[in-house]
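For reproducibility, we list the full input for the zinc ion complex.
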Amino acid sequence: MSLILLSLFPPASQGQTDDASEKLAHDIFKQLIEINSTDSVGSVTAASEATAQRFRNAGYADSDMQILGPNDRKKNLVVRLRGSGKHKPLLLIGHLDVVEAKREDWTTDPFHFVEKDGFYYGRGTQDMKSGDAIMATTLIRFKKEGYIPDRDIILALTADEEGGKSNGVDWLLKNHRDLIDAEMVFNHDGGGILSDHGKPLMMTVDATEKLYADFQISATNPGGHSSIPRPDNAIYSLTNALARLERYQFAFELNEVTRAYYERMAKVETPERAGEIQGMLKTPPDSDAVARLSRDPIDNSTTHTTCVATRLSAGHANNALPQRAEANVNCRILPGHSAEEIRQELIKVFADPAVTVRYVDNSGNVFDQASDRKSFPPPPLRLDVLGPLEKITAEMWPGIPVIPDMATGASDGLYTMAAGLPTYQISGIAVDRDDIRAHGRDERLGIESFNKGVEFYYRFLRAVTSE
Ligand SMILES: [Zn+2]
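The corresponding predicted structure, in tokenized form, follows.
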């Protein structure tokens, strides 16, 4: 009898899901989804102000809250929970802006928080108003409980991660570094539980990420009448260049994080795949194993910089030689390399002076050169982070491994890493591997997944910030 009771009611020391916190998290989440914070017509400031009011209601002093930014629509919220000061502060970051969403593309109104079939629907449910609500709820819960962490915990909810000209993390680092200076940073915009039909597979922690870069590849030509073709032709120059790119493979490279990722994966994979991974991890790596693994798009992108043609346009009339041919090539660059380095490599790959390679920024402006900024090599995986993460994961999702990972996209962590702040993407949200809808239509998050994410973050953050 007692055994049955024990399994029905887990010991209280594990922490019961707190109903008031669950409701608060839901309410903040709903409110944020229903505030349009797109770059085109939305307001990040409105989302910052609404969240600040939640903190004020919970007893945060106005002196511990700032709403600030470069213009009226792009104001960020910075809140500080005072700790005992035993360690340097911990900074939590999350972006409040969302990708555009058109009503006609969606089944439901993307800016209406809809609860349906066990899911919350709305733009930002995955990326990442869920995380904003969870972090805010956690700090409010700490305040209500009178919890004093062993360091200040700063929360920065910010603008323009998805696009726009006023990236909040960048702006705060440049203009108010003192407000957000910290020993390390947790970004809720990544990591989390990867699941398959609701079954948790692994807890990932993103400790590094690739750098995003677009390049405009163009060929120009004097052109002329198509009845008397000349040997040089802008379309041929461009397509020959792209064909070289198709066959080109950037260098194989592992870093501290991807190496740790594969070491751990080798223990849970099929024997055949585990064998390939062992070969790849050798020094020097077994090049056959690398080649075989690289046929998988995810393994390939984890171990190489990738550049791929994504758009093409050329010519101006059916009966004229083309004067211009242009393609966009999108690159995801491994840590330790800059966009300018890759631009130079592309020029060598194309090996044609008639083909130019120019950098395109987020707003579509084109530059002759790219930035020398690198995605920084990953910080060491700190035991004071990994330890609590493994402990809480084992409590909440028994038996799944914690896997350090590299995000193949890019997030605001690029700015904090560039500023010398070790940054980890950590969350307790579970998303099915085939239900990743960030930036897509009918974005949604499981209600159960959200509630568990609320509880995880509370336990995890408390474990990291207590003696
Ligand atoms: Zn995001």
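The mean pLDDT is 92. Residues 95, 127-128, 161, 189 surround zinc ion (CB under 6 Å). Both points were considered when choosing residues for closer inspection.
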